[in-house]
Amino acid sequence: MSRLEDMVKDKQIISIVCNQWGDTGKGKFSDYFAANWADVIARGTGGNNAGHTVVINGKKRIFHLLPAGIIYDKEGKTNILGNGMVLDLKVLTEEMDELDKENIPYNNLMISDRANVILPHQIEKDQKKNKSQKKGGIGSTGRGIGPAYGDKILRHGVRVRDLFNRDMMAKRLEKAKGYYPDINIDDIISYIEPYAERIYPFVRNTIAEIHKFVNKGKKISLEGAQGLLLDIEFGTYPYVTSSSPSANGTASGVGLPGSIVETYGIAKFPYMTRVGGGPFPSELGEDISEIHCANDLDCDIFFEAKEYLGMDIDLSKIRKAQKEKNKVLLDKKEKEVVDYMRSNPEKVIGLIDSSCPFTQGVGIRMMGEEYGATTKRPRRTGWTDLVALKYAVGINGPNLILTKADVLGEAEEFRLCDGYNDGDNIVKTFDDDENFLRRITPKFSTYPGYQNITGETNYGNLPPSLKESIEYLESFTGGKVAMISTGPEPQQTIIR
Ligand code: GDP
Ligand code: IMO
Ligand code: MG
């Protein structure tokens, strides 16, 4: 029996969710379980606000909609886009085109007939109202997620099955007109029809299909999206996404009971990130960091490499390329910056070791390459918040996967947030209330730094301060660390 099978034991259904604000490595672990364990890989929440990165032998793929398991379709594995998702069909068909280019088949793909479809007027609304933090939005990804889920709840969303029934689609859009007076129903239908035709062969009653897989004893892995602290129910409302990325939400998003799913909740450790607006108690640099990162494109990876590492970058050229959406040039320039950061770790660690928390946060962002997979925005960085993690463990269950500990190798010290100072009180219970989270200040425990652990696969070999802090995390949160990730590649993983 492999170590992974030994860990999962007799469980038939597992889920990989995030216990923080997203971007914790769901892509890496969804791929890991798809490659080594699952027969079926299903997503049930969110849409293309997600950016799930898989790195295999140095080749990076970022999935926004398709589950990471799609690359194992050729091995007969089934990938499902579940009922709880919202699908931008343009983005979905572009992901299919990418696979076609690489000759990667997706014959076993199933798309839920009940998933909701994101339409151009919903994207426009999201970009106007929610995207720009400078204009009072929460910093959404601008992908139309909020309006699409809003319209679903208001009962005039267009579902995948409606795409194949022109009258039904027109009826739903007629109702939506009350909220979007300017839409032209014929235009929307003509826009969506070619995409609908393309996905038609894959559309199924995925709820019935997944129940068949369960009955046949197939092993199922649910790929979560976003994170518990972005959950519409449990997250830092209103700075949240519009679905439920919790373990239960992920299960219900594919039509399964949460109670039969063994959940693995991922947390970055010993630092964590958030992208977009909203409270983040353990953030390095506090509101200066939040404002800096809200400037998104003005304070992106190029700006930071020039400003903090002294790289010779012509920012006006970069901004021009961004305006013109010159992806080839931007990708080339980004690679140059990332290569520079990777080959000058002492410069970046120098920032982490500085005495200014904001600068430390910039250094961690560079070392961890924390620039959004979906939007390229700089991710806000802070020390891992055990108070918030305890809350997540209560909702998502005890099994934990810790990622990114390798990023802080060779830094002088690290911290963990293990309480909130509220006046004279130290609070150890999380409350998602914005006023509370903005009022309190973090209490930290400090640990000595550790050497480079990149690629380590044996828990016993981890440095003492890391093991001590992991054991403290477990006693504080009630969680149980099952796996530790020591790099982006699948083999850079410890099964404890
Ligand atoms: P997701 O949204 O949860 O799938 O996470 P993202 O893909 O948005 O961001 C996680 C990033 O961290 C990706 O670039 C991964 O390749 C990378 N990654 C995942 N685990 C590790 C790890 O343990 N160490 C390092 N250095 N990188 C990791
Ligand atoms: P993955 O799956 C990190 C954040 C946005 C914004 C808020 C609402 O890669 O972990 P939305 O577009 O959903 O209405 O934005 O949620 N957000 C994410 N942050 N990772 C994600 O996905 C996210 N998806 C949404 O930045 O603050
Ligand atoms: Mg991501």
Detailed description of the structure:
With 496 residues, the protein is α/β, with parallel strands linked by helices. The protein has three domains: 11-112 and 202-267, Adenylosuccinate Synthetase, Chain A, domain 1 (3-Layer(aba) Sandwich), CATH 3.40.440.10; 120-196, Adenylosuccinate Synthetase, subunit A, domain 2 (Orthogonal Bundle), CATH 1.10.300; 274-382, no CATH class. It is built from 18 helices and 19 strands. The protein has helices at residues 3-8, 26-36, 89-101, 120-131, 145-153, 166-176, 185-199, 206-215, 247-252, 286-294, 301-309, 315-323, 327-343, 345-352, 357-367, 386-396, 434-439, 464-477; strands at residues 13-18, 40-43, 52-56, 59-63, 78-81, 86-87, 110-112, 116-117, 203-204, 220-223, 262-268, 271-274, 380-383, 399-403, 413-422, 425-427, 441-448, 480-485, 493-495. A ten-stranded mixed beta sheet has the order 9-7-5-2-10-1-11-14-18-19, sandwiched between helices. Helix 4 (120-131) packs across helix 5, helix 11 (301-309) runs parallel beside helix 13 and helix 14 runs antiparallel to helix 15 (357-367). The protein is globular and about 65 Å long. The mean pLDDT is 96.
Structure characteristics:
binds 6-O-phosphoryl inosine monophosphate; Adenylosuccinate Synthetase, Chain A, domain 1; 3-stranded antiparallel sheet; 10-stranded mixed sheet; alpha/beta; 3 domains
